[in-house]
Amino acid sequence: MERIQFVPTVDEVLEVGLPHLEEAEDAIVSFGQGCEGEPLMQWRLLERSIRELRERTDRGTINLNTNGSFPDRVTKLCDAGLDSVRVTLNSPHLKFYKRYHRPRGYSFGEVVDSLVQAKGKGIYTSINLLVFPGFTDRETEIEGLMRLIQKTNLNLIQMRNLNIDPDLYLKTVGRGEGMGISKMIDILKKEFPSLQFGYFNRTKEHFRSQIADCKFKFEI
Fold it and tell me: How far apart are CA 92 and CA 144, in angstroms?
């Protein structure tokens, strides 16, 4: 895809986002989609844009898709009027997170703290869990995920196929055996009855509804 070669102004953000929030059914606007850079690098622009949007309308949902690298910036965006935050990760364990994401200039602890801080501000939080059958559903991964959910009081787990060369990934995270994705979900549902599962960011109207917005199809 062709990348834009400039940073938009607040007015340009409003030109795109405001009509959608004001007019669309079940409207949602998101900063960041995981393949276009980290939105927290432009947090001042986002902060001003969110404030301007919310001064003009309280309609619709403003979401942030992020790697969670700067908890203090996430907090400022929450104060500006953000409605929801989604943080991407492949594992709840530091060593596997580092092997895949290779963070520079931030730590896994800050990623977790971003979720904690957002929840403390009353924000709807989710993780974008990059799923690799045979790894994500290992017992140790599930146990780590449960600890993460307990620590962050997470609302939603969005599950995404991790489209990657399986041999390369297993070489990176080590070989092992999973119990099955369906069984993993059953365990988490039993342990956390209010935890939601899905595939998309949710709008405010559906923050608390157990809608079936995902059809799982895992491929490697």
Answer: 5
Q: Is 60 left (phi over 0), alpha (psi -120 to 50) or beta?
A: left
Q: Cα 88 vs. chain centroid, distance in angstroms?
A: 5
Q: Which two tokens stand for residue 173?
A: 């995270």
pLDDT for residue 168? 94
Spans of all domains in the chain: 24-206
With 50 as the cut, is the pLDDT of residue 218 above it? no
pLDDT of residue 197: 94
Can you list the pairs that 147-152 forms with residues at least 24 positions away whose Cβ atoms lie under 8 Å?
147/92, 148/92, 148/112, 149/188, 149/191, 149/192, 149/195, 151/112, 151/116, 152/112, 152/115, 152/116, 152/119, 152/125
Alpha helices in 61-213 (DSSP H): 71-80, 94-101, 108-120, 139-152, 166-173, 181-191
Report pLDDT for 205: 86
Q: Is 107 left (phi over 0), alpha (psi -120 to 50) or beta?
A: beta
Which CATH number is 24-206's, of 3.30.870.10, 3.20.20.70, 3.30.565.10, 3.40.50.2300?
3.20.20.70
CB 128 within 8 A of CB 88: yes
Locate tokens 């869990």: which residue?
129
* Structure token pair of residue 165: 């060369």
Residue given tokens 């977790």 in the structure block? 112
